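Our consortium's second objective concerns turning raw sequence data into structural hypotheses that experimental partners can test. To show how far this objective has progressed, the report includes one record in full. It was chosen at random from the queue rather than selected for favorable results. The single chain below, 150 residues long, was entered without modification.
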Amino acid sequence: MIDWTIKPFNGLTVYELYAIMRLRSEVFVVEQNCPYLDADNKDQNCYHFCGWLNETPVAYVRIVPPGVSFNEVSIGRVVTSPAQRKGGFGRVLMVKAIEHCALIFGKQNIRIGAQLYLKKFYESLGFSQCSDMYLEDDIEHIEMIYVFTD
């Protein structure tokens, strides 16, 4: 059973932060073969939403306040553990992250920078493309927006 937690940066334990950063590096740097500086000084301003299985993070996002990455609230560093893929955790993670954005910041638009190959996944969650394709760390990305309908 997944234990879902959400904490501001200063609420994370050293163990939690290490485990989250390890998962992010495992996927974004090693698996995607993309050397980049993940520690971008935004984490300190964010909420960290994580699904834990036996004290190991299996799904994670950071919820970024307006004005940090975009004018809108944002969801970033979306990642699921390679060992736990195909379990549907990514969809559950995003649905819950959208709910937490509304709880924390109210029902305002959410903007994300999405890898282009995940466009259909994010569209299935209610996001719409709102930019042309651009390269970020040599990976094709697009910006997408989620607008609350109620």
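The partners drew two points from this record. The radius of gyration is 15 Å. The chain has three helices and eight strands. Both points have been shared with the crystallography group to help prioritize constructs.
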